[in-house]
Amino acid sequence: MKRRFYEEKWLPLSIASEGRVKALNKLATEGWHVVNFVPHENGFLYLSLQRESNMTSLADTLQAVYRQRDHGIKPRVHGNGFIQLDMARDVRLHVWGDPRIPRQKTFCQIHDHIFSFDSELIVGQLINIWYDTELVIGGHGAYKIYEPFPRGGQDTGLKDTGHTVDIFQKPPVLLRTMHPFADHYHMKWGEFHETIASGPAATIMHKNGPSQLETYTSLGIDLNNINPDGSDYHLMDALDTRKPRVLVPVGQEPDNEFRRDMFDDRLLWTIIFDTLWEYSR
């Protein structure tokens, strides 16, 4: 039976709004169904919405992966130890947890993104952990903030921003495919997280929603006027909102010798198909 995928989101709706019926009708035409709601003292209902997703089934994914290989699209290795394969403009396949996947020497998995995305788990299980951060003035935090710089193609290195933070872990979320529905998680730009695989797993990432740059531009904030001394950091939670951030433990340096495209394509394709075929049974 073809796996069914679902999207979920929470939406605030004003109880007093004259347009609430129109808003609910619009949601219905987009395929959303209200599965729960929570009243709030501020006069809003927080609706839990769900709809069947356009995310692909595993069989569809395999066919698409074969097409990408036949069209000469090459997989690459992220420094945090997973394989990336571009499937479409805003869609990527990620393959995790195989011990043959290379990774950088320094453990620095906690990072954020400049775009929002949904990630559907199609094979195995993963743990996703969100973190809150607090800027520590004077550089005495537990983690240094690094940002990427381009080195050609999809490859980047990491450079120190001179700022440090302390982190506060939120409850981890276990994602599994041991049921007839796909598990997924949503990441909003600017949220720090890390993803941990205890064994072979695969996800499909769909970029969606406005990016950090688009959001600030819509608010009339000039990203070129961020104070170099970091005084705007608490407002924007970013040194340069056009770049993602990576947290490296104080006392360690990122592995800038690692390059995403330095590995044998044949090995990466073998790992991809081993994961999608063997571990999905």
Task: Describe the overall structure.
With 281 residues, this protein is an alpha+beta fold. It has five helices and 15 strands. The chain has helices at 20-29, 58-70, 212-218, 233-236, 265-278; strands at 6-14, 33-39, 44-52, 76-78, 82-88, 91-96, 116-123, 125-136, 143-150, 156-169, 173-176, 183-187, 192-197, 201-208, 246-249. The longest helix is centred in the C-terminal third of the chain and has 14 residues, at 265-278.
Topology summary:
Layout (H helix, E strand, L loop, with lengths): L5 E9 L5 H10 L3 E7 L4 E9 L5 H13 L5 E3 L3 E7 L2 E6 L19 E8 L1 E12 L6 E8 L5 E14 L3 E4 L6 E5 L4 E6 L3 E8 L3 H7 L14 H4 L9 E4 L15 H14 L3
Antiparallel strand pairs: 1-3, 2-3, 4-5, 5-6, 6-14, 7-12, 7-14, 8-10, 8-11, 8-13, 9-10, 9-15
Q: Indicate the mean pLDDT.
A: 77
How does the major sheet shape up? 6 strands, antiparallel
The total of helices stands at 5
What shape does the CA trace take?
A: globular
The side-by-side strand order for the widest beta sheet comes to 4-5-6-14-7-12
Task: Report the order of strands and helices.
Answer: EHEEHEEEEEEEEEEEHHEH
Class inferred from helices and paired strands: alpha+beta
The rounded Rg comes to 20 Å
Q: Please identify the top-level CATH class of the largest domain.
A: Mainly Beta
CATH superfamily of the largest domain: Jelly Rolls
- Identify low-pLDDT runs: 1-5, 226-240
Task: Please state the second-level CATH architecture of the largest domain.
Answer: Sandwich
Percentage of residues in helical conformation: 10-25%
Please outline what is shown here.
Helix content is 17%, strand content 39%. The protein has helices spanning 20-29, 58-70, 212-218, 233-236, 265-278; strands at residues 6-14, 33-39, 44-52, 76-78, 82-88, 91-96, 116-123, 125-136, 143-150, 156-169, 173-176, 183-187, 192-197, 201-208, 246-249. The protein has a six-stranded antiparallel beta sheet with strand order 4-5-6-14-7-12.
